[in-house]
Design goal:
This is F-box domain-containing protein. This protein has 551 residues and is mainly α. Helix content is 52%, strand content 0%.
Length: 551
Amino acid sequence: MSISMVLLDFPAEVLLCIADKLDKAKDLFALSCLTRATNFLFLPYLYNFNVRYQRSSALLWGVVHNQPSLVDTMCQYQADTNTTDEKSRTPIFHAIRAENVTMIRRLLSDKRTDINWQDRNKQTPLLYAMGRRLSSIALLLLDFKPFLDEKDRKQRSAIWYAIAHCDEGLVQALLQRGSDVRRKDYKGRLPTDFAIFKKNENIIRMLLYHPDPKTGKSLLEDGNARDRYLRRAVKASLQDIILLLVAHGADPNIRNDSDETLLHQAADKGDKEMALQLLNYGRTPFQIAAENGHKAITRLLLTHSDVDINALDFNGATALCLAIQNNNTDIAMQILTEDHVEVNAAGRRGMTALHSATEMGNIPIIAALLAKNDLDPNTLDEEKMGAPDPRCFSGRFTRDVLRRLLCRETIYFNHKYGCREESPLCVASKLGHIEITRLLLRHKPRPDINFKTYMEYTPLILAASGGHLGIVELLLEDESLDVAATDISNDTALCHAARNGHEQVVMRLCEDPRARSGDYVKKAIKEALHCEIRLYLHRQLNEQGNLAIGL
């Protein structure tokens, strides 16, 4: 009779006692492989042994070999999600390398996973993904709020990699999340200097317009920065950037090291187009008067001269755009009374007159513009934002402004705005603006109440996650609402509310028959952090006749 057969004759208690005394994983593994019964009995010991004595190496192996069930099991046994390989890389690095989005989300859903871990090269997961040009993975990581300004061993930050790869989408996403554009790289270059070196004009514009988080001023508003970048733009022959800087106040007569002006340099290079632009530099008198609020001058020019009221400046803005941007309401109204006014011209950042009036909260101008039959209320700016700009909901955007916009039946409310691809209803629901949400829901045709963002969040999920009970109740009144809609992680609104401890929202959702799916309630129980919510959800399960899950 073999030793293995003799072992199987022992009671389970004795076998478990033997397992406790074993100090090698291969012995535990051998025991677990004897029969199905021993596999069931000893496998948990093997998992615990791996966690306690082998630095959770099975978790790393599971990620490398794409074994999601093993990864899930190891996480349940509290495996160290920050265990490292010989290059000091944690499992998340290997999931990124394999471009395994499901595995990345699974690891990052564990709050113990350090998204800012630095490997032997001082690369964080974000820098590692960007270094490998995995843009979609980098965008996914940004949703988990990593440190944006960490640098690797060569002093390269996330914004450096995005510029190096000319990835405009990533640059925009990093800037929107507060990446510092005033930190130098290993060559002592600022991000804007590097973008000029790469000659990517779209990225240069983004960086020049980006406001400093401390002062609120952009590089275009910094006189010294403007002139410095003008010199570099001239050296790189970036015509559009040169004109942009000059239009924002950079000195067009600035000289280089050879004491040559911009016009000298354009002539020296034989750049006819640049020379013509510099010779024609400046706005028309009518544009200058409109921008600076000189109503008497604009009236005089309109009355006594053949003025072109639709002339465009370097940014593509008309006098009407300039007047509205500078809150010169009287002059804007004066221009709007003229015949054949171009109301859809897009100026700086692609903003039309309606964009600017909406951003300023200027009701009289909005009303006058909406009265124009040729107005296109659905034009998007350079950041793909419409006139009902969701970014303004937390600022000067008022109910009165929205009411005015809603008077136009052709206005479209289902655009995907920004890198998160959110609709106005999504933003209002997320920020808890109940009156704006109510106005949007009353509009005919109605906005898509089940609209999904980049992360597949619906307005209900966003409201529930933020604990906005009033908005949740408003949305639940709609019979077409998909209460059981799930996000990219297969979480419902109920699950989000439970996870974030919003008990009143949980109770309100459970009152709705559409949210009472047993599977979703069970998942919400697992996600709930507060005992009160878990107990309440257990009672809901019991009332439905489902088997209760152990806490």
